[in-house]
Design brief:
This protein is mostly helical and about 280 residues long. It has one domain. About 70% of the residues lie in helices and about 0% in strands. The protein has 15 helices and no strands. Helix 3 crosses helix 6, helix 9 crosses helix 13 and helix 10 packs across helix 12.
Length: about 280
């Protein structure tokens, strides 16, 4: 196995501060996006422009259409995509600066440059969110550069993950229910993604019919295998940038990212719906 999964575990928390650090929420509120979900949908969808709900339902995948339509396209009447992107970047800079006071700025600059080299190796075809983030104008601030490179790599990987889930016939409620039969909790995931009890139960029933969940909602061996197949395909599809960098550069990047990633992870609440593993 290559480096894709190990690198994701390191750069994902750098992206995730935009959802969990209060400094990021403050910037979205200042831009006119009051309420967590307005900032979430506007900030994450902004690279796509003033987009409506339907493409975001597809691109974000796990959210119920009704939840997305409550936010989009109405958020663009509160803040333009450019304003949402500015708030996202400013919040990330404030959060990363505060969370990593002992990290030399030179290390942040070097890590940002290496992540940007990884981004340069990405292929945009079929990766809607990854491509949209990669096409954004570059930032000058090293913390903004670090955040944006991590975000682009994260969204590129996520696009590939969705393709793997679709290929394994795991729709949004199915994959969420399957994860909750393995290592996550329904209380978090159902409310955070906006599905009704009826929709969730129907997704569970489809998994039971396929032999992927048992009657108690626990993943069967077959269910774990299907998910493992999708994860493997995700990792394979995300390997190219790390192959392009080569083992020595990847090793250096890991050393630079570990303390930054650990500080960001410490700011993310336990039991969150991201589902980021520890290894």
């Amino acid at each position: 196995m290559g480096e894709a999964r190990a690198m994701w575990i390191l750069f994902e928390p750098i992206h995730d501060v935009t959802y969990f650090d209060p400094r990021c929420l403050d910037r979205f509120v200042a831009a006119g996006l009051r309420g967590f979900w307005r900032g979430y949908f506007a900030g994450r969808a902004a690279p796509l422009g003033s987009i409506g709900a339907a493409p975001v339902v597809a691109a974000f995948y796990g959210f119920s259409p009704s939840m997305v339509t409550r936010a989009l396209p109405a958020v663009w009447d509160l803040a333009s995509p450019a304003a949402a992107l500015q708030a996202r970047a400013e919040g990330a800079v404030a959060a990363l600066t505060a969370l990593t006071p002992d990290t030399p700025v030179a290390d942040v600059e070097e890590a940002a440059g290496l992540l940007e080299s990884a981004v340069a190796a990405l292929q945009p075809a079929g990766r809607v969110l990854g491509a949209a983030n990669a096409a954004l104008p570059p930032y000058e601030d090293p913390y903004a550069r670090l955040f944006q490179a991590a975000t682009t790599l994260r969204e590129h990987r996520g696009d590939g993950h969705i393709a793997a889930l679709v290929a394994n016939d795991l729709g949004p409620t199915e994959v969420l229910a399957l994860r909750c039969g393995m290592d996550l909790t329904r209380d978090w995931m159902q409310s955070a993604r906006g599905w009704t009890d009826e929709e969730w139960t129907a997704g569970q029933a489809r998994l039971v019919d396929r032999g992927l969940l048992d009657a108690e909602g626990k993943a069967t061996d077959a269910g774990r295998e299907v998910f493992a197949v999708a994860e493997h395909a995700t990792n394979v599809a995300a390997e190219a940038p790390w192959t392009a960098l080569g083992p020595d550069t990847v090793g250096r990047l890991k050393d630079l990212l570990r303390p930054i990633s650990a500080a960001c992870r410490a700011a993310i609440p336990a039991g969150n719906p991201i589902g980021l593993p520890t290894a």
